[in-house]
Amino acid sequence: MSIPAHLRNNFDTLLRAAHDGNLALLECADAATGEPRYVICAVGRCDSDFLFTPFGHLAPDDPYQAYLPPTSSEAA
Fold first, then answer.
1. CA 29 and chain centroid, separation
2. Own/partner pairs for 34-40, CB < 8 Å, 24+ apart?
3. Is residue 69's pLDDT more than 90?
4. pLDDT at residue 73, rounded to an integer
5. Close Cβ partners of 73 (under 8 Å, ≥ 6 residues apart)
6. Counting beta carbons within 10 angstroms of the beta carbon of residue 40, is it exposed (0 to 12), middle (13 to 18) or buried (19 or more)?
7. Percent of residues in the chain assigned helix, strand, coil, to nearest 5
8. What is the DSSP string of 40-69?
9. Residue 57 has what pLDDT?
């Protein structure tokens, strides 16, 4: 399984924001359901305004049950 370049770039941006102390956790509403989501955002500045770039949300339940690990192509 190969990670697309644009997602790798987003991850690198997220790492830089974390290194610089420019991350925030915001409570937002899911656009489709209205349910609360806790969104990881990079924080930037434009003059006196803050800019928040969302990268993803925290798993609402047990993340170990929400995801499956990658499998090798040989095992598939």
1. 15
2. 35/60, 40/14
3. no
4. 63
5. none
6. middle
7. 25, 35, 40
8. EEEEEEETTEEEEEEEEE--SS-HHHH---
9. 93
Q: How far apart are CA 59 and CA 52, in angstroms?
A: 20
* pLDDT tens sequence across 8-44: 999 999 999 999 999 999 999 999 999 999 999 999 9
The secondary structure of 5-21 as a DSSP string is HHHHHHHHHHHHHHHTT
Indicate if the pLDDT at residue 75 is higher than 90: no
Asked whether 26 and 41 are in contact (CB, 8 A), the reply is yes
Q: Where are the domains of the chain?
A: 20-59
Q: Which of 29, 55, 30 is nearest to 42 (CA)?
A: 55
